[in-house]
């Protein structure tokens, strides 16, 4: 096969994938082995089976995400996704650290460079800053992780897209309660009701999670509610209402230096304790989706949503650093909303199926942001004098087109185009700092094309090639500060623009004694105007570097080695490097030059995941999984690396059924060998406190009780 002729990074896995594919196609099917169920993907806008989707995409079933897990963080179950580097900070004040193919790795808080959607509602703001803490795993039907060129169709997302979908209520009413507890005072209580009554499907889910934290100053209290209501006004239409509310009170232990981590990994920076660093978040949102089949080939879909978010964050910035600093306490009140209107049509063209989608996505955010000193006299960790007061507005209006044409029996061409427009505006209402007005506005726009060609080798094998352009704008935080602490927005900062190419193969196999699927993707992305640090002093400012290159390989496979034994595996190889040198100003006033060839900070060269599940009977489940991550560069000049690590987990579950009752018990041990490792890095931390330690050996046990009426 031609795949075996590819040269470059890690050619041997491509050869291996090709041999596996050739072998599986050549083997006769075992009629006694059941066929794998067909899986439909939604993230490419046009629904298609997983094997016939011309993109690197992983689907994680909601039931598997809940089985023997805490159901608190998506990091619990997304570790099996190739290309996705996911690090749990064990810090509920800062959210998870996610990156896809090296995009989003530099984020010091929240998620950037990746679009996140929950039931079609963006969890990513128009500037590319997102969060995952409103995803209710307890009621998820599935999650889809889309990587590479296809993500251009979502606009401001160069790395990829994560879509979470709540399950739909149907059938007889069911009620389920869950309780789990574990190490470091962790406790989770959950309650879920779902079913269908009088043609109305419903899923209602509520949970509370408490933890004392692995480190001092890392306790958290998270409350989450999620609801979905489905109604069919007639046989041609469907109306879906989703609502979500989350409240989080979390301490913030911050990072520690590599030297302190080596001495005592559970250490917390003294200032975090002294200033009682913490965050409180409240967010409520709701969305309504209307879908109507106009005729046999035409359909409409309209989604509208609105939400509110309030946040108060107390940082550990010392008093001595306050002059010129825009607050050790941040207050935020945000109103947001938007819509997505879409039409789709199906036709015949040249003897093949032709599908066309046209749509418009528009989102707006209005926020009031205040900054205060985090001290008042001798009192520390309190709301002090006001030093920042501004009204910020973000918005985007993006029209898009997508077409798919099966122009030959085994060939299909997909193409798409999005005109992405992002606008920023800031009104400075605090002029008493003697630094002039910080008001200003700017905007970015980019034409984002995508094309993909796929060839179906046989009914179970598909080969594809994709090409696309992505845009990653600076976030509002990154554009808010100028080098030299000058007033106004950083108008010189431009979006990073990436061109990505991807070659992949997907294969389902069902041979004597074994069935499953495998996929391989080889990719390369070149980015111009990469956003990097300009000054790392107090208020960090940013600049555009020259070019970067990300290239790598992703392999994933699921195989039933036996009717009762399932093996899951994923391999990621990533070479993410600077192609141009640049310089930035250090906290001590000196200049650091980062030469070309350095690894992009926050990225690891390799990740491996293996998971083995054994189902000895209909009621028992046992699992063993192992994951490995290579060294992670903690700063731009690569002078500090977080060490590589290997960790394993063991889990067991048992389900007992009695009539309409179902009792499920489960337990797990994470980090079996009590490995001391760094869970995540704070990229380019100005005080060189780069490391956030992962917990040692952890245990959890729980039970759920369900009743079907």
Overall description:
It is built from five helices and 43 strands. With 709 residues, it is mainly beta. The chain has one domain (2-213, 222-708): TonB-dependent receptor, beta-barrel domain (Maltoporin, Chain A, Beta Barrel), CATH 2.40.170.20. β7 (114-118) and β8 (121-122) form a beta hairpin. Mean pLDDT is 90; it is low at 1-35.
Q: What's a quick, concise take on this entry?
A:
This protein is 5% helix and 57% strand. With 709 residues, it is mainly β. It has a single domain, classed as Maltoporin, Chain A.
Total discrete domains:
1
Strands, total number: 43
**What's the level 1 CATH class?**
Mainly Beta
- Considering DSSP H and I runs of 4 or more, what fraction of the residues is helical? under 10%
- Tell me the CATH topology: Maltoporin, Chain A
The CATH superfamily bears the name: TonB-dependent receptor, beta-barrel domain
Biggest pleated sheet: 22 strands, antiparallel, barrel
CATH architecture: Beta Barrel
Strand portion: over 45%
> What is the rounded Rg?
25 Å
Computed structural class: mainly beta
Number of helices: 5
Instruction: Choose one word for the global shape.
Output: globular
């Amino acid at each position: 096969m031609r795949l075996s002729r590819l040269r470059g990074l890690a050619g041997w896995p491509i050869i291996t994938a090709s041999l596996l594919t050739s072998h599986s196609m050549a083997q006769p099917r075992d009629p006694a082995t059941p066929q794998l169920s067909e899986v439909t993907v939604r993230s490419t806008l046009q629904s298609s089976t997983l094997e016939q989707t011309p993109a690197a995409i992983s689907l994680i079933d909601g039931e598997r995400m809940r089985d023997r897990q805490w159901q608190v963080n998506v990091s619990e179950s997304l570790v099996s996704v190739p290309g996705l580097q996911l690090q749990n900070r064990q810090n509920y004040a800062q959210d998870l650290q996610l990156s896809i193919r090296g995009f989003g790795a530099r984020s010091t808080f929240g998620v950037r460079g990746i679009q996140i959607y929950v039931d079609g509602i963006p969890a990513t703001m128009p500037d590319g800053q997102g969060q995952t803490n409103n995803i209710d795993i307890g009621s998820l039907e599935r999650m889809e992780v889309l990587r590479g060129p296809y993500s251009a169709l979502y606009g401001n997302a160069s790395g990829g897209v994560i879509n979470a979908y709540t399950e739909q209520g149907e059938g007889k009413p069911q009620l389920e309660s869950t309780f789990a507890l574990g190490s470091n005072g962790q406790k989770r209580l959950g309650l879920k009701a779902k079913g269908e009554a009088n043609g109305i499907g419903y899923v209602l889910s509520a949970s509370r999670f408490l933890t004392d934290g692995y480190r001092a100053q890392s306790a958290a209290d998270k409350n989450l509610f999620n609801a979905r209501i489905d109604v069919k006004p007639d046989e041609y239409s469907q109306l879906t209402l989703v609502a979500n509310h989350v409240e989080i009170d979390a301490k913030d232990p911050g990072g520690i230096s590599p030297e302190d981590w080596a001495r005592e990994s559970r250490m917390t920076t003294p200032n975090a304790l002294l200033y009682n660093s913490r965050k409180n978040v409240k967010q409520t949102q709701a969305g309504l989706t209307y879908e109507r089949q106009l005729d046999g080939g035409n359909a409409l879909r309209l989604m509208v949503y609105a939400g509110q978010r309030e946040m108060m964050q107390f940082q550990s910035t010392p008093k001595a650093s306050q002059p010129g600093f825009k607050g050790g306490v941040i207050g935020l009140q945000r109103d947001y909303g938007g819509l997505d209107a879409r039409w789709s049509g199906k036709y015949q063209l040249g003897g093949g199926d032709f599908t066309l989608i046209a749509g418009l996505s528009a989102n707006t955010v209005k926020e009031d942001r205040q900054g205060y000193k985090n001290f008042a006299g001798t009192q520390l960790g309190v709301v002090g004098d006001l030093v920042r007061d501004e009204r910020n507005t973000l918005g985007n209006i993006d029209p898009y087109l997508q077409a798919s044409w099966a122009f030959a029996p085994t060939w299909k061409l997909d193409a798409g185009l999005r005109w992405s427009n992002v606008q920023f505006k800031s009104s400075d209402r605090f002029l008493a700092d003697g630094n002039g007005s910080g008001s200003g506005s700017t905007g970015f726009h980019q034409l984002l094309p995508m094309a993909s060609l796929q060839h179906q080798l046989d009914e179970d094998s598909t080969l594809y090639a994709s090409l696309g352009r992505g845009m990653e704008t600076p976030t509002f935080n990154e554009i808010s500060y100028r080098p030299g602490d000058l007033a106004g927005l950083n108008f010189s900062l431009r979006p990073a623009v990436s061109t990505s190419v991807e070659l992949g193969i997907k294969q389902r196999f069902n041979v004597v004694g074994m069935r499953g699927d495998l996929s391989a993707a080889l990719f390369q992305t070149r980015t111009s105007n990469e956003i990097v640090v300009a000054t790392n002093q107090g208020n960090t400012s940013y600049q555009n570097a020259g070019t970067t290159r990300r290239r790598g390989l992703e392999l994933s496979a699921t195989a039933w080695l036996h009717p009762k034994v399932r093996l899951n595996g994923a391999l990621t190889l990533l070479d993410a490097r600077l192609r141009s040198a640049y310089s930035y100003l250090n906290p001590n006033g000196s200049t650091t030059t980062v030469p070309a060839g350095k690894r992009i900070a926050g990225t690891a060269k390799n990740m491996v995941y293996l998971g083995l599940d054994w189902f000895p009977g209909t009621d028992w489940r046992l699992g063993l999984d192992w994951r490995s991550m290579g060294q992670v560069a903690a700063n731009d000049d690569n002078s500090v690396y977080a060490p590589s690590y290997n960790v394993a987990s063991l889990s067991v579950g048992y389900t007992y059924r009695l009539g309409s009752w179902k009792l499920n018990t489960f337990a797990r041990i994470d980090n079996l060998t009590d490995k001391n490792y760094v869970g995540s890095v704070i990229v380019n931390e100005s005080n060189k406190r780069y490391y956030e330690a992962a917990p040692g050996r952890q245990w959890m046990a729980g039970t759920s009780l369900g009743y079907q009426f």
